[in-house]
Design a protein that fits this description.
With 256 residues, this protein is α/β, with parallel strands linked by helices. The radius of gyration is 19 Å and the shape is globular. Strands 3-4-2-1-5-6 form a six-stranded parallel β-sheet, with helices on both faces. It has one domain: Undecaprenyl pyrophosphate synthetase. The chain contains nine helices and six strands.
């Protein structure tokens, strides 16, 4: 496909997406960096570097489309089990991204937040994450949520611990109460979760919040998941019927 054809396809997809109503919150499991690198004879670290470069253009596109929240699974609690050199490289990439993109994101009105057990990270990452969060706290553009040292089960455990500490009695605990004690209580549940590299699993990601999220699986590795693939995923989402436990007839009746 030529550049002209790609640009034309992108423009058509953007128009279709905008005409169909964009989701409020899109979450992404950015998978396949290592396999992308292996296929090209590169190191896994090179793959993570390519994946990091991909983040910027997709966040920009999401913002341009009017998506209000985008959540990226950058480093899971389980990722600590990877080889030390890879973990160290990932931490350096995360730190570099936070510092390098901070001012530009702030100028564009992006709000930057972090989900996970951030207190267990290095002091430098904690310091820079806090600085970015505070700098962009009052911005009103798209919210970029970065999941670092994150696990869905751990988030639920941490929420329960907070509930016990504040002394809420068991009979008073509801789904709404638990939601209030998650890492970012005001973050709406994701309408759409996209996973790249063709893997068919949720991998401990936003387990509480994904109860009624639509899932779109792309065969593309994350570094190859470009703007056109993102737009195609949004179109797949838009063509689905979200029933939330109701029947199709009930949905049609309520809309009428």
């Amino acid at each position: 496909m030529t550049d002209e054809e790609r640009n034309s396809l992108k423009e058509n997809l953007v128009e279709e997406v905008l005409n169909s109503g964009v989701p409020e919150h899109v979450a992404m499991i950015m998978d396949g960096n290592g396999r992308w690198a292996k296929d090209r004879g590169f190191t896994r670290i090179r793959g993570h570097q390519a994946g990091a470069r991909n983040v910027k253009r997709l966040v920009q596109l999401a913002d341009d489309l009017g998506i209000r929240h985008i959540t990226l699974y950058a480093f899971s609690i389980e990722n600590w089990a990877r080889p030390w050199l890879e973990v160290s490289a990932l931490m350096r990439l995360i730190l570099a991204y936070i510092i390098r993109e901070r001012n530009e994101l702030h100028k564009k009105g992006v709000r930057f937040r972090f989900l996970g057990r951030i207190s267990e990270l290095s002091p430098r990452i904690i310091e820079e994450a806090q600085r970015s969060t505070e700098l962009m706290a009052k911005n009103t553009g798209i919210t970029l949520n970065l999941c670092i040292n994150y696990g869905g089960r751990s988030e639920i455990v941490d929420a329960i611990k907070k509930i016990i500490i504040v002394g809420i009695p068991p009979e008073k605990i509801t789904e709404e109460i638990i939601s209030q004690y998650l890492y970012v209580p005001d973050l709406p549940d994701p309408d759409l979760i996209i996973r790249t590299s063709g893997e068919m699993r949720i991998s401990n990601f936003l387990l509480w919040q994904c109860a009624y999220s639509e899932l779109v699986i792309s065969a593309k590795y994350w570094p190859d998941f470009d703007e056109i693939e993102f737009l195609k995923s949004l179109r797949v989402f838009q063509l689905r019927e979200r029933r939330f436990g109701k029947t199709s007839e009930q949905i049609i009746s309520s809309e009428g």
